Amino acid sequence: MNTTDILVFIAYMAGVTIFGSSFFRKNKTSSAFTLGNRSIPRWVITLSIFATFVSSISYLALPGIAYLSNWNSFVFSLSLPIPAIVAVKIFVPLYREVNSPSAYTYLEKRFGSWARVYASISYFLTQLMRIGTILYLLALTINSIFGWDIATVIIITGLVVMIYSILGGIQAVVWTDAMQAIILIAGAIICTLFLLFSMPDGPSQMFRIAVENNKFSIGSFGTDLSESTFWVVLVYGIFINLQNYGIDQNYIQRYIASK
Length: 259
What we know:
Layout: H1 3-21, H2 30-35, H3 42-53, H4 56-68, H5 74-78, H6 81-98, H7 105-111, H8 113-146, H9 150-197, H10 203-212, H11 230-247, H12 249-257
């Protein structure tokens, strides 16, 4: 890594923090802090949901798995249309009607306060584990590029996100998510083109090597439930994404914040 690369990285981190924190002056009410006064554009909410869904686990770990094995993990993405349709038809109207920034208000109304408390604690513990994994994978990448200490990267990254989230509220979160989503998509496209056209014999060489080594396989279509077959991953993806779109606070709060 040269000086320019490091400066770009530092400038990006500083820019995201300053931009996210700039929403502080708009948070004059609790509604503004938690829902952005329900005036956030749809395209921003859309990109924010995408950026929430695509973490460093998706962006770094899954390509690594595909490189080592095949495209079996891609079946998880093939399951997305089913939960998405269910969310559009059932979950979004439901939560918009409940009109609460909490995903668990409905549970309290339907089953009592114990259901809300139980679901909230479970969500909190799940997010602790998820955030820990995401920050660790990010720190591993930064460590391999810059040689920086993993624990230091985790602490600094966590503090940066906490600062602009606390100061800017939901508006800071979704707008910075939208920025990051655009960078993620652009970066993936650039990396793909770079890899394809860096092959000595052009893109066809990469496809030829991949086919010869069965890299495009999406798994066995057998019925063995003890293996990661196409059907096992597909069913797993449907239920996990129903959970994401149906009860995850990360998504529900965005449903309500959209105008």
